[in-house]
Design a protein that fits this description.
The chain is α+β, with helices and mostly antiparallel strands. It folds into two domains: 31 residues; 70 residues, no CATH class. The protein has three helices and three strands. A hairpin with a 4-residue loop joins strand 1 and strand 2. It has a three-stranded antiparallel beta sheet with strand order 1-2-3, covered by helices on one side. The longest helix is centred in the N-terminal third of the chain and has 28 residues. It holds the Pfam family DUF4907. Keywords: Lipoprotein. InterPro entries: DUF4907.
Length: 110
């Protein structure tokens, strides 16, 4: 009789601990993950983009990189496509630098 009572006591303890563990894991898995956020902005001569993380701007690009001129993106879509490329590189832990060939592949008007 006492062995049965002790076994039930331990099973209840294990069930409570498992329930607590399940609750903690479900709360942790549901937390909001911070993502890189892109925004475009209007410049004097066209468009630029910014990339922010946790509400802090980490990249602000008002001109097209890797060309000899100080020229902004001609359309908002061009700025967004380039920002998307940079974000994908950052997510892969690569350098966020952009090459001229990548801009040509994205069909950015240079």
């Amino acid at each position: 009789m006492t062995i049965n009572t002790i076994t039930q006591f331990f099973w209840r303890k294990i069930q409570k601990n498992l329930l607590l563990l399940f609750l903690v894991l479900s709360i942790v898995s549901c937390t909001k993950k911070e993502v890189l956020k892109t925004e475009t902005f209007k410049t004097d001569t066209g468009w630029g983009y910014s990339i922010s993380y946790k509400e802090k701007i980490i990249i602000k690009q008002s001109i097209i990189p890797v060309i000899n001129e100080n020229k902004s993106f001609s359309t908002q879509d061009d700025a967004l496509k380039t920002a998307g490329l940079v974000v994908s590189k950052l997510k892969q832990n690569l350098s966020p630098s952009v090459t001229k060939n990548e801009l040509i592949l994205l069909k950015i008007k240079l």
